[in-house]
Each structure stands twice: as C-alpha cells, then as structure tokens.
Amino acid sequence: MIYFDNSATTRPHPQVIEVVKRAMETYFGNPSSLHQKGLEAENVLKQARLVAAQYLGCKPSEILFTSGGTESNNAAIKGVAFQYQGRGKHIVTTSIEHPAVYDVCKQLESFGFSVTFLPVDRDGRVSVEDVKKAVRDDTILVSVMHVNNELGTIQPIAEIGEWLKQFPKTLFHVDAVQSFGKLPLRVKEWGIDLASISAHKFHGPRGTGILFKREGLIIQPLLMGGGQEGGFRSGTENLPAVAGMAKAIRMLAEEGKRDADRLSELTRHLREGLSSISGCVINTPAEGSAPHIVNVSFPGMKAEVVLHALEERGFLVSTKSACSSKADEPSRVLTATGMDREQALSAIRISLGRENTAEEVEKFIAAVREVGSMRSYMKEKV
User: Fold this and answer.
1) Rounded distance between C-alpha atoms, residue 361 and residue 262, angstroms
2) Distance separating alpha carbons of residues 281 and 276, to the nearest angstrom
3) How far apart are CA 102 and CA 231, in angstroms?
4) Burial of 188 by CB count in 10 Å (0-12 exposed, 13-18 middle, 19+ buried)?
5) Cα–chain center distance at 333
6) 364 neighbors 3 (Cβ within 8 angstroms)
C-alpha cells in the first residue's frame, strides 16, 4: 500500500522508534523523583525541551509538553478564557478551524463566552481586515490556524500577529499542527502568544505534543495535580514519547528544508497530473498553500467510493479531517468556502510525506485517471 494520508498521521521514523524504546528501557524513573533514576529522567526531559526551544527560537521555559494537538488547543483556548474572563469574554476565530479549536469555542459559548467565527474566501483564507473588524475592547483571544488541515491553505498569521501587537490584552493563539516542520513558524517575530504542535504529524510518536506559551503569560491550567510543566500541565510526563518527539525535531532541523522542497516538487507534479483528468477539480489553492496537501473533488461521485476505489488500487487517502471523516455530512471547512454540497461530498485529501516518491505520485495519477473513467458506475453508487 502507498500511504498518502500523512496529514492524518505519519509513520514514526525508525530512529524515533529506537529512541522511544531506549527511553522506556533506560529512563523509566519518574522525572519528579529525587533519586538517580529520577534525575536521569529529568535530564532527558530537559534535553528534549532544549531541542524544541532551539527549533522554535524560544526559551526552554516556554515549551510545555502535552498529549498532542487537541490538548494543546484546549489548554491554550480554555486557559486564556478562564484566566482573563474578568476583562472580557469575546473570542475571535475562523469558520475553518480544526474541531479541536472550533468545538472548544462552541463549548465556551455554552459557558457564556461570545465567539466570532470569521468567514473565509473561496481559497479557505481568512481576511486580515475581517480580523481587524472583529476585534473589540473585550476580545481576549484571537485563534487562527497556520495551515488548514483539509485544504492546505496558509493563513496570514504574520500579518495578523503584527497587527495584534498593538493590543497587548488580546492574546494570539496559533494551531500550528499542520505547519510545524513544513513551513517557517516564527513565534517571536509574529507576536504569537500560544502555539499548538503535535508530534505524530512529523514522524514522531502519537500521544505527545507541545504548547508554546510565551514567557510571563499566565493561563489557567487545564489539568491540575502534581504541578508538572511549571504548574501548567500536571501529570507525570510521557518521557519516552517526549524523547521520541525530540528526535523527530532534531531530524527536522537536519532535513526539514530539504523535505519541504521535495514535497513542494512532488505536489507540483501531482497537481499537474490531476488537472489533466476530466472531472477532477482541485480545491487547494495553487498559491499560498502548504507543500504537502492537495484536496480534490470528483463531482457526481461519492468521496467514500473514490477512496475505496483508490484503496483497491493500492493507495490510502482520506476524506475530510481524520477526526471527523466518519460523519456523513459535507465538510464544514469546504462548505465555508462557498463550495456546493455535491462538490464537498465528493472531496478527498491527498497528503504527502517524507517517504513518498515521484514514482508513487505518477502511479497515483494513473490510478485516479482509471477511477475517474468509472464515473457512470460511481454515480449509481451515490
């Protein structure tokens, strides 16, 4: 099987697996314990924090280890909401956020917060001007993802962050789960207060991630208990997974630029091939999109049928976000761009990764052409 679903999760790199295994065998002590095994484990944790901080260009104290992107998003948004509700209960986000942001904001509405869900254009991109118009005196948080997980559209994070610098009481959170390791993420330069990262999106282990939290920023902890992670995230740290994530970040530092350039070339080739296939509509914008995601529709066909037809031919892709792909409704993200229901229901996401090759892309284009020729049969299945 050829794996083209890297936005859902990536295969852990063999070196990462080896680091996780070694950490489980050797550094099994609790990092909070005072004995030798505890101190050894604490040192591994410190080294991992330093690796992450160096890659992000921040201080080690600004790195909080979490269980992944969902927890990081929840911790950031709820942490700000509950800490600063006394000075305002208004949050600004977009209509195309991942459920780990969108649904959290919906939940906060039930708690009495006011949320503005900004529209996007046909490319799935939010307008900086709309952000400016939405921010009010009682706005305590703006949360905008860096790269959309379904379309691959890059959001104007730098411009939004620069403008928000004049409002120190309005914090800026960025869901960087799909961009970390694929695009530059300049948390300091762009005025980002909080950023969410997930290890399994860049060949690290599942179940671990990072919340970047700007130095001096106080948020309400999502998890209370033993006071780990500077008191902001209690619970004994998942040290083997954190060590594996640090290894994956080291590999990004060594190979990340080369990987991104190679992915961009593969994606360019993929788009060229798909654009030549009758009935195949490319939804991902040609400009201003991530180097690894291509979303396409086959109007008149059902996405699940296309997905399984491709699987029969040896290719694994996805429909919508992996977190909501089993719901029999068109993607909220795609319909937010103004896409009609039929086109949205026929959309699949192709997401490339470090292990994919030009030969695989060529074979995939041929498979899509073959599936597309079965349109009349597919229509009977809708």
Assistant:
1) 12
2) 10
3) 26
4) middle
5) 14
6) no
Nearest Cα residue to 100 out of 212, 180, 198: 198
**What value does the CA radius of gyration of the chain take, rounded to a whole number of Å?**
21
Q: What is the DSSP string of 22-51?
A: HHHHH--S-TT--SHHHHHHHHHHHHHHHH
C-beta neighbour count of 348 within 10 angstroms? 23
Contact 277, 371 (CB under 8 A): no
Q: What is the set of active-site residues?
A: 323
- Residue 222: which of 112, 320, 100 has the closest Cα? 100
CA geometry: angle at 323 spanning 200 and 296, to 5°?
Answer: 95
Q: What is the 3-state secondary structure (H, E, C) of 106-117?
A: HHHHHCCCEEEE
Cα separation, 227 vs 223, in Å, equals 9
What does each of the 382 residues of the chain score in pLDDT, given as a tens digit?
A: 999 999 999 999 999 999 999 999 999 998 998 899 889 999 999 999 999 999 999 999 999 999 999 999 999 999 999 999 999 999 999 999 999 999 999 999 999 999 999 999 999 999 999 999 999 999 999 999 999 999 999 999 999 999 999 999 999 999 999 999 999 999 999 999 999 999 999 999 999 999 999 999 999 999 999 999 999 999 999 999 999 999 999 999 988 778 889 999 999 999 999 999 998 999 999 999 999 999 999 999 999 999 999 999 999 999 975 454 445 689 999 999 999 999 999 999 999 999 999 999 999 999 999 997 766 554 544 4
**pTM of the predicted protein model:** 0.94
